[in-house]
Amino acid sequence: MQLLPSYLSGSWSPGSGTRQTLVNPTTEAPLAEVSTSGHDFAAAFSHARAVGTRELGALTFAQRGALLGALAKAIHGAREELIALAVANGGNTRGDAKFDIDGGAVTLSHYADLGARLGSAPLLPDGEPIQVGRTARMAGQHVWAPRHGVAIHINAFNFPGWGLCEKLGPALLAGMPVITKPATATALVAHRLVELFAPLLPPGALQLLVGPAGTLLDHVGPGDVVAFTGGSATARTLRAHERLVAHAVRLNIEADSLNAAVLGPDIELASETGALFLADVVRDMTQKTGQKCTAIRRVLVPEARQAEIEGALRERLAGIVIGDPAREEVRMGPLATAQQLRDVREGIARLAAETTSIFGGTGEVTPVGVPAGKGFFVGPIVRATPTPLACAALNDHEVFGPVVTVGPYDGDATLAAQFVARGEGCLVSSAYSDDRDWVARFVRTAGAWAGRLYLGSSKMASQSPGPGTVLPSLTHGGPGRAGGGEELGGERGLHTYMQRVALEGDASVLKSLLA
What we know:
The protein is an alpha/beta fold. The chain has 2 domains: 41-255 and 486-513, Aldehyde Dehydrogenase, Chain A, domain 1 (3-Layer(aba) Sandwich), CATH 3.40.605.10; 259-472, Aldehyde Dehydrogenase, Chain A, domain 2 (3-Layer(aba) Sandwich). The chain contains 16 helices and 23 strands. The protein has helices at 41-57, 61-77, 79-90, 94-118, 162-174, 188-197, 232-239, 242-246, 272-286, 306-318, 338-352, 392-395, 413-422, 436-446, 492-495, 507-513; strands at residues 2-3, 6-8, 11-13, 16-23, 30-37, 124-125, 130-131, 138-146, 151-154, 178-181, 206-208, 225-229, 250-254, 259-263, 296-302, 356-359, 381-384, 403-409, 426-432, 450-456, 475-476, 487-488, 498-506. The chain starts with a strand and ends with a helix.
């Protein structure tokens, strides 16, 4: 069986100790193994600091952007191979695998283009010059300067391709070397990506740890950045890590997110905006089997339309074929791991105690093309509650699978925003309305509780990628429960890996520093 090595200090290392097995979540057949220990993390950090920082620092933004463009081309060249790995190791349908792989390539291409635009600028300005003296001669200027540290990226199981790239692109463009650690259970895609990327990058720019993190974070220090995507329990552990606290290590977290979708009172389900709403809810339930941090979990609809909407969801979901994702007719595969299946079933049981079933019961399903008793499958589920703001099982716990809960409201925009707020912070929530006054009232209150608000309407429906698609030009992250972090957002994505510094002095000197 294949033993996946890590790529540390410029060479591939299999590690040692006990081994952990990666399996196909459809059949539970073993695919590969990883070692759980035996890596020299101190040497890896030293290699990144001494070699990676020097090599990347010698390049301009444009040159680093060109490297990212080469990585994007490498993904395109190996696209079919990567899709096959995602199907086998992630339980993805072909469409889900393309969503992950192509999303990573698009993100790298976006940052490649940004690098070309930034050119050879040594520093990035943050705003305009400010007069701080009696005359304009004495000025102040905020700028972004390179940080001299290592970026440690800890990624989630659900997007091994896109997740790696959305952190890697901004970090490398900012000039910071990266040690990336994918989730072990679905590491095949990330491992292959690093095999493709390593020969295209300067020494020390990118390292890969496959397997448990172990004592990796015991080696962080001043100037380093840790970016984590995963569960809130692990996030709490990271926030209290002794080394991160002692050295004030910058920590960016993307955690749980109870994303909401709200249908405005002006929208008929048969309208273009109503169709967009329905399509987005169904897509987010079934794409990646609901294993998206941006997926819709909570749905709020006008009370008069609740029965119609529930009926439409039943009709759409009844046609979804569930089973072996390698089969052409299958539209939804398994959950990624046995632990995910246990967690989702526990979440469903919690919901079932406070809600009623609209579709799918508690998720029992007979998957197509799968041996009896095999695979980590759960079917799409729609639940309902008459009191959406008061339902603790809905608003206090994220079920990371193909599950949504529908609740009614009276159409008031402020109440809709309070429903978004009840989730205590989300990555994205969506509202569907062609009434601009209603939308304005909604945004004023809901904006405090979301990293991104997706505003569905008839004017944009034909161009919409849906709320579940993370765009590299817009920030990705959210307040409160969602972790309080922020990634991507075009040039903003570089700021996590740079230091804002206020320069104060002669205006002509400050101007020359930005030339």
